[in-house]
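tokens incoming
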């Protein structure tokens, strides 16, 4: 899939999939929200607004208040790519989000997911 197509994906279509993925593993929607807010700087209300507005992923990250300064601590492989080596900055942010959700689903402690 080319990057432009990924960037146009509506965040509201991905969000329920994230919730479904983590709930299968015993985690919660609230934990998904906490991780997403940590990554993007959104609060719960502004995150919900992005969902309600059917914002695409490009706009979701462009409008994010502030990417967490600890994102550089997110490392590892997601979809066959090392997140720290992805050159396209927007794609890297999307993969950071995927990586955090994967860690949540795998049962990692919240302190480790949030790089505390």
């Amino acid at each position: 899939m080319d990057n432009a197509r990924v960037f146009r994906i509506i965040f509201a279509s991905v969000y329920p999939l994230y919730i479904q993925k983590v709930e299968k593993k015993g985690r919660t929607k609230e934990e998904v929200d906490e991780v997403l807010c940590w990554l993007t700087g959104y609060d719960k209300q502004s995150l919900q607004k992005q969902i309600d507005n059917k914002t695409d992923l490009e706009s979701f990250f462009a409008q994010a208040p502030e990417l967490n300064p600890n994102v550089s601590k997110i490392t590892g492989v997601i979809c066959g790519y090392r997140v720290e080596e992805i050159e396209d900055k927007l794609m890297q942010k999307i993969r950071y989000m995927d990586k955090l959700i994967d860690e949540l689903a795998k049962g990692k402690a919240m302190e480790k997911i949030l790089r505390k």
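note: The first helix runs from residue 3 to 7.
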